[in-house]
Design brief:
This protein has 389 residues and is α/β, with parallel strands linked by helices. Helix content is 40%, strand content 13%. The strands form two sheets. The chain has a six-stranded mixed sheet, with helices on both faces. Strands 3-2-4-5-6 form a five-stranded parallel sheet, sandwiched between helices. The longest helix has 19 residues, at 184-202.
């Protein structure tokens, strides 16, 4: 774990040694730490938090439309073979998206193969893509993947005129990525929404903890958007950050995050950058006898919904990966019918951000297994209508 503190109005110099980092953290808990709790809210803080509270009301309502209204309008070819590359066993959203895609492709008579690397390391992702290339598919789907380590494989796919659709990745559409669906643009909207909810609940300046996940560039980038929203609306708020390793997910991650909060007793809110990181946070805190601050997350995991219902998890910004699976199939249908520009125009029209929270009375029933509650209740029917089904 690598904790750091920042404040927009008076940022501390970056620590260059572990001892310096520790001294900063210890000072933050003492009288000379200069935490935001010692300062009254400024006019900018008051106005920013007021704006955040007003915006939260709009995040409570579920969308009713997938945001795409243009039908395919042409016969969709059948017998297409799609290969989807997973993001490792920790990428629960990718697994949900695959299961949804498996249902969607049945409507079009396509075949879907799933290749799941043991970990989302560059080498294993490269191997998975090489395997996909040997299968000679009609398209390849990747998820939450930075293109830089796989440029050689992407170049081979482009040379074979095999389109690549990416979901939840940090790179924009273009070049080796035919279309990026729900990339930083869409995830930034969710980050802003959950930041607004954080400030609305705090009601005044304070210390906010953030937990990041190295190895997933997209997570770090939308965490940056979350921080920017906090700093813009609450200049006096202080941010303290740490990271946990991918290897700790499902094992020591909960304990690591609990220790992070205990080392920062002035923390008023905790943002878990990727919700699946925190699935054992609450049990770890209970075992340690620790009281957590209000806790927030992005990309709600199915296993977190009971914690949302009980109020243990204060609020979360869901990303409906099931709907994303159907959206990916829609994009491919447009690409296969010579409407790539249409895919770029229509399939990046997203539903408005939603926040789930017990105090908003909108937490859905817990799903069974790795399924996800539909944000748009009838999205499969809406997609099938676009496909003439």
């Amino acid at each position: 774990m690598k904790p750091t503190r920042t404040r927009r109005t008076a940022r501390r110099a970056a620590a260059t040694t572990a001892g310096t980092v520790l001294s900063l953290l210890l000072a933050a808990c003492g009288a000379d730490g200069g935490t935001s709790d010692d300062k009254p809210a400024t006019a900018a803080d008051i106005e920013g938090i007021k704006t955040a509270k007003a915006k939260v009301r709009s995040y409570a309502e579920a969308p009713t439309s997938i945001g795409i209204t243009q039908p395919i309008g042409k016969p969709i070819p059948s017998d297409k073979k799609i290969v989807m590359i997973g993001a490792g066993p920790g990428g629960i959203g990718t697994i949900i998206a695959h299961d949804a895609m498996a249902e969607a492709v049945k409507e079009l008579g396509w075949e879907l193969k799933f290749i799941q690397p043991k970990e989302p390391t560059p080498q294993l992702l490269q191997q998975a893509l090489e395997q996909a290339i040997r299968l000679d598919p009609d398209a390849v789907v990747i998820s939450a993947t930075n293109k830089d380590p796989i440029l050689d494989q992407l170049a081979k796919l482009k040379a074979k005129n095999i389109p690549v659709v990416s979901n939840n990745g940090p790179d924009p559409s273009g070049g080796p990525i035919t279309i990026q669906i729900s990339g930083l643009d869409a995830l930034s909207e969710l980050a802003v929404a959950i930041a607004d909810k954080t400030l609305a609940d705090m009601g005044e300046p304070g210390t906010i903890g953030i937990v990041g996940l190295p190895g997933y560039r997209i997570v770090q980038e939308y965490i940056g958007v979350y921080k920017e929203e906090i700093e813009t609306k609450c200049p006096s708020c202080e941010i303290v950050e740490t990271t946990i390793s991918v290897a700790s997910l499902g094992t020591t991650a909960g304990t690591d995050m609990t220790n992070f909060t205990r080392a920062n007793p002035d923390m008023k809110a905790l943002f878990v950058g990727y919700d699946a990181m925190g699935t054992n946070l609450f049990s770890a805190a209970q075992a340690a006898g620790a009281k957590l601050p209000r806790t927030y997350s992005l990309g709600t995991a199915p296993a977190s919904i009971p914690a949302l219902a009980s109020g243990g998890l204060t609020a979360s910004a869901p990303l409906d990966q099931g709907e994303m699976g159907w959206r990916t199939v829609d994009a491919l249908a447009r690409i296969f019918t010579g409407q790539t520009e249409g895919a770029l125009e229509h399939d990046v029209k997203y539903t408005h951000p939603v926040i789930w929270s017990s105090d908003l009375n909108n937490v859905p029933a817990a799903p069974i297994g790795n399924t996800f509650p539909n944000l748009v209740k009838d999205y499969p029917a809406q997609y099938k209508k676009l496909w003439g089904k």
